[in-house]
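thread: overnight batch results

M.L. [08:02]
morning all. the overnight job finished for the chain we discussed friday. pasting input first so we're all looking at the same thing
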Amino acid sequence: MSKQYNDSLTSDQVDAITHAWLDLCASKQHFEGAINSVRQAGADELAAACRDSVEELETAFPFLMERG
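M.L. [08:03]
and the structure it wrote out:
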């Protein structure tokens, strides 16, 4: 994790952000797969919401993209 975030976020906050990002990434993949295989009600909207949230988190917290 970069020093910039280490000074302003607690480890619990970083963990929460990281876990939310991982959950959204997995959900995005699931819903995008559901769109391509069988049309599930709301799958395309949920995929778009997950995709947008992942992008917002990655922009706000670049440490999520760091390989550790």
